[in-house]
Specification:
The chain has about 550 residues and is of the alpha+beta class. The protein contains 22 helices and 18 strands. The strands form five sheets. A six-stranded mixed beta sheet has the order 15-14-11-18-16-17. The protein has a four-stranded antiparallel beta sheet with strand order 4-5-3-6, sandwiched between helices. β4 and β5 form a beta hairpin. α7 packs antiparallel against α8. It is flat. The N and C termini lie far apart (about 65 Å).
């Protein structure tokens, strides 16, 4: 095959996602830390699921529209650092696809892939070699090299894959952490699974695709994460209006300006020739009229939110109605110019953040929220200025990505742990300016030491220490420093490390879903006897996977 058209490209991307989904657990298992949050494969797979979801919405075989749809889907579905990088690969790839062409040559495909790699490198502030970026760059360069020698897609992709495997095997030599853990880079492995799926579809264009059989259906995930999030809002604007515009040289800023006076919760985002609009308005006819100036409209959806809320009230039981009223009261009280959004997981932790005035995005170590999850919560907040607390290093990049997708002023405080997030929120004062709050919150997170106690999911070696599956692990500020056989043994050693050089302070423990009341009380009792000059507090966090989350201030 010397050329591929839109239908083949679409099938190749869908099959790439399918192969990654089949092998996501293999990618997850390559996590450097042997802790139960190895989610690179899951994040990449869920990002691709959203890309496929967008591809399945379009009937056109136009190459550019297909590439744009995949880029759009991956952008909105991006989860974790690996998902964000993957979305940028697709974004650059779409930008590199020639306009008004029915098919592309191997060299044009390779050039588009290279454009994707360039976009991904630009998206990362400090690119690290030995990661998915390295594998992407090397395979893109190899694809261009092969395309200069051969016009056959199958041969080019096969040789690129073989070369990519060799690059992947070298990643432990580029990153000390990979070498010690005796694993290759997880993101790079995931990318090669995508390339493998792409190659298989090109090799066999008649391949039978059954993408619907999913272990964890994307729609179910989204429904769970967004359940009842509309409950607390007053209905000032009646119609939730959504649509897509397909055209040429669409001016997004002009659309934003014209629509801004027609309602709230406005999102106008897109790429090149495809734009999506979401707005709550009392004049959907004016929204459609404005949109028509820029091109063809599709997927128009107009919902009457007053009717929806009436149905919720009339159709729910007494408890639901009381909860609705409480949500509404909270909404009225918290309607200020600065909103705070925190990523959190666990009933207790969620309640702590809510009690401090933050809106919650459900997520964390084992389930990173997508760009769309964060953006949706941002747009539903009544404030013009939004401060986001990611509370996980793997969510920071996703949060940053929302800045260019919203009309609101978004500020991301780079909190890498739950203790940092809580410490930052303690410094928040709604009476101060957003600039003063950001300064105070960033200053506060520098004063907290974070710790976690969890367990090893596999045998490995870290910092010269052999770790066995099931061992209890103690992590201080992201560094795995302690291994043991008992949870109590590890938390005592961890607190000792966290309090080094301190004469007094506050030790706070958030205990997880697997810790009973007796165990936490006994642990706190022992710690109180040893650290008499420290105030010791403990709260139910309810988090999974992590027995204890500890902060020292």
């Amino acid at each position: 095959m010397e050329k591929i058209d839109g239908s083949v490209l679409k099938k190749a991307i869908i099959n790439a996602a399918f192969i990654l989904r089949q092998n996501k657990k293999i990618v997850d298992a390559l996590n450097v830390f042997p802790v139960p949050d190895g989610d690179t494969g899951t994040n990449m797979s869920l990002t691709m699921d959203q890309a496929v979801k967008e591809l399945e919405k379009i009937s056109s075989n136009n190459l550019k529209k297909i590439a744009d749809a995949a880029a759009w889907g991956s952008l909105m579905g991006a989860r974790g650092n690996s998902g964000v990088i993957l979305s940028q690969l697709f974004r650059g790839f779409a930008q590199g696809i020639p306009i008004h062409k029915y098919s592309i040559t191997p060299m044009e495909l390779a050039a588009a892939y290279k454009s994707g790699v360039d976009a991904a490198y630009r998206a990362v502030m400090r690119p690290v070699e030995g990661t998915i970026l390295t594998v992407a760059r090397e395979t893109a360069d190899r694809m261009i090299f092969e395309a200069k020698r051969n016009n056959n897609f199958e041969t080019i992709l096969q040789n690129t894959l073989i070369y990519g495997e060799k690059v992947l095997e070298k990643t432990p030599e580029m990153l000390k952490a990979l070498k010690e853990a005796k694993v290759v880079d997880a993101g790079g492995k995931g990318l090669l699974f995508l390339l493998k799926g792409f190659y298989e579809a090109i090799k066999n264009p008649n391949i039978d695709l059954d993408f619907s059989s999913s272990e964890q259906n994307l729609q179910t995930i989204n429904e769970e994460m967004h359940h009842n999030k509309e409950l607390g809002q007053e209905i000032k604007y009646m119609y939730c209006t959504e649509l897509f515009i397909t055209g040429k040289e669409i001016d997004i800023e002009s659309i934003k300006s014209e629509l801004s006076n027609l309602g709230d919760s406005m999102i106008v985002i897109g790429m090149d020739e495809l734009v999506k609009i979401h707005i709550h308005t009392n004049n959907p006819d004016k929204v459609l009229s404005c949109s028509l100036k820029w091109g063809e409209l599709s997927k128009i959806k107009i919902d009457n939110m007053k009717i929806q809320h009436r149905e919720i009230i009339n159709g729910s039981n007494e408890d639901d109605r009381e909860n609705y009223i409480e949500h509404l009261e909270d909404f009225k009280i918290s309607k200020k110019n600065i909103g705070v959004i925190a990523v959190s997981q666990g009933k207790g932790l969620n309640e702590i953040f809510k009690s401090m005035g933050a809106d919650i995005i459900e997520g964390g170590q084992s389930m990173n929220p997508s760009t769309e999850d964060i953006l949706s919560t941002v747009e539903k907040n009544s404030s013009d200025n939004i401060i986001i607390l990611p509370n996980n290093k793997n969510i920071i990049l996703t949060a940053e990505q929302t800045k260019s997708l919203s009309n609101k002023n978004i500020y991301v405080i780079p909190t890498k742990s739950i203790p940092q997030g809580i410490s930052a929120l303690l410094a928040f004062n709604p009476e101060l300016s957003v600039e003063e709050n950001i300064l105070n919150m960033k200053r506060n997170i520098k004063n907290v030491v974070s710790g976690e106690v969890t367990y090893a999911v596999r045998d490995t070696e870290w910092n010269g220490n052999k770790i066995k599956k099931g061992d209890i692990l103690g992590i201080k500020d992201g560094d795995l420093l302690i291994t043991g056989k008992e949870k109590e043994e590890v938390i005592f050693k961890l607190v000792a490390l966290m309090t080094e050089g301190r004469q007094d302070g506050i030790i706070t423990i958030y205990y997880g879903a697997d810790i009973d009341d007796y165990s936490i009380q006994k642990t706190v009792e022992i710690l109180a006897k040893k650290y008499k000059d420290f105030d010791i507090e403990y709260y139910f966090g309810g988090q999974n996977l992590y027995y204890y989350i500890v902060s020292v201030e």
